[in-house]
Hints:
By secondary structure, this protein is α+β, with helices and mostly antiparallel strands. Helix content is 25%, strand content 37%. The chain is built from 2 helices and 9 strands; from the N terminus they run H-E-E-E-E-E-E-E-E-E-H.
Amino acid sequence: MRxxxxxNRALQRRGSRPGRIAGCGLLAVLLTVxxxxxxxxxxxxxxxxxxxxxxxxxxxxxxxxxxxxxxxDHAVYSYQTPSNVxxxxxxxxxxxxxxxxxxxxxxxxxxxRTPVTRGSTNATVHHIVFAGEHEAGVxxxxxxxxxxxxxGDRLFRAELRQMRxxxxxxxxxxxxxxxxxxxxxxxxxxLDEAAVREQVRRVNQRLEPRLGYPRLVDAGxxxxxxxxxxxxxxxxxx
Length: 238
């Protein structure tokens, strides 16, 4: 038998397998790390919330099967104190909105210290629905707004809970399928006091000819003086 002139060839061939296995192992590790990072990013996104202004609110009837869920692509806010905040949400075009919600927080609840009961509120809502060319309805109510960020930051995040709503004003042919309803939702609004003033002014201008009488929605740029029920004992002053 002739001796192999290249005795290391077999060893090289056999030695290449661990290299391939190691390469596959490294690829698997990299993929695992990438997946872990992706999962971490998603988890952080859930914790920190959306980074763009907007909101989604749901009006759910308390007397029937109807529900109205609206996505608001425009959301701005202003504040007078850290506890006194006004938020304006717009669905549709800014100059021809389909729906507008104006939310006012009167005082800031304290996590773990502020009881939530049916008789206590810290916020009011005006939810205006424009229907067609001539009709409009104004749903109004009060309940709880829970801030998830500080007023004064570029973005103000909050949740609406237990907001009891009812149709307060409407044009003659406006159809109300909801009746008494419950409003919930999540909000991310951008700080812009000038936009709050302008959008509220436009809403009031559009409402009057449809309702046939002035129906002023307050922009909330003055200290709060509403006679709504007071918050629970121990609530901070506005």
